[in-house]
């Protein structure tokens, strides 16, 4: 079955229409929700303010009823038409001069301090995953046949038929300052035909509503199944009212924040969590010899520089199997590559509190370098744009990202795995530079330890929509199934 394609003329018309529109607020209301009865909220982050609208606490039940009606309308859309809507919206947003994208990038740069080029690169990666081929691949990997979301489909292993039913309403609580992060869970919920309450992240509030406005122009039925808004983390009344409307809950944030939400999830509600995660890199002697120090350094710098090292997928440390001189030479090469990356896509303005942390980490690294021939530190001059630290021990992890490349020398790949072991609970992504049998052996050990993704050095950022996020089927995990078997109608 072919994916429906919205004509190019419609895409061009939408660009023209959006270009003339005024910059909107950070909330999104479906067309069926009257703004007359909504209350105004103010979202503050540092010295900046954003505004939007949300239901009054006593009106959440009415909003829930509207979302359930929107869910029924969404259920009538073929899943491939929903895929086509996201594909078209992503095509629009893939253009860096698309007005909604430019407004969003400027807003994200203002609140996060990241440069516009750094944010654009992040959005390029996120949006590429929303093209039809990737969404269909994700659906096929987890569901087998996407059309099980439309009705009963024959299942030869069952000797019958099966269908998948998504939640009527999903509540997604987003957090973090990574531009575009909400789009993955937003898309997954809508693909399974669930209406959505999206609590936007305070640290990057502009993307969700902006993308939904584009989606409304492309396919109104899909966008009309979403309410995007904000409430403060200590606003128990709005959080409780939103939770009461949900059949499924997706939580992002620290372990403590996620635990607070989980404690309030009812037994009948599906719960997905994306809590605190850590990622590492590992380089073997064989990999370093096969690829050369300059290329390996470029890959380490790429992983550490993308998104200013703020993503969960970003490496906190690269563990390198090497001797003292070899490691020192590699660190020097990484410093050159970090300098080149900063020139290519500048980090932007590092928040003052983060800059203090970077300076403190540099100071500690300098002390260790002064007392150990196995340690060293390389820094950008006059700013905190990048830092490279070479050490012989994996000290307690700390810091706030901001392009600090830590290289820790290990005597073997087994020692690298052992060094990661204390962090197994939070292990997510590993950039594994290994070759041949050593690659597969270490990959298996890391998988058993807790890693949910293994990528090549230089490709740690940019996980696909097909990846089972944090090791779980995030599309199938939202669904319940109904099978028809032992019935003459399916014989």
TrEMBL record:
Xref: InterPro entries: Ald_DH/histidinol_DH, CoA_reduct_LuxC
A single GO molecular function term of this UniProt record: long-chain-fatty-acyl-CoA reductase activity
Broad class of enzyme this protein falls into: oxidoreductase
Organism: Actinosynnema mirum (strain ATCC 29888 / DSM 43827 / JCM 3225 / NBRC 14064 / NCIMB 13271 / NRRL B-12336 / IMRU 3971 / 101)
Keywords: NADP, Oxidoreductase
Protein's name in the database: Acyl-CoA reductase
Highest taxon in the source lineage: Bacteria
Reactions this protein catalyses: a long-chain fatty aldehyde + NADP(+) + CoA = a long-chain fatty acyl-CoA + NADPH + H(+)
GO biological process terms, semicolon-separated: bioluminescence
EC number(s) on file: 1.2.1.50
Similarity comment: family membership: Belongs to the LuxC family.
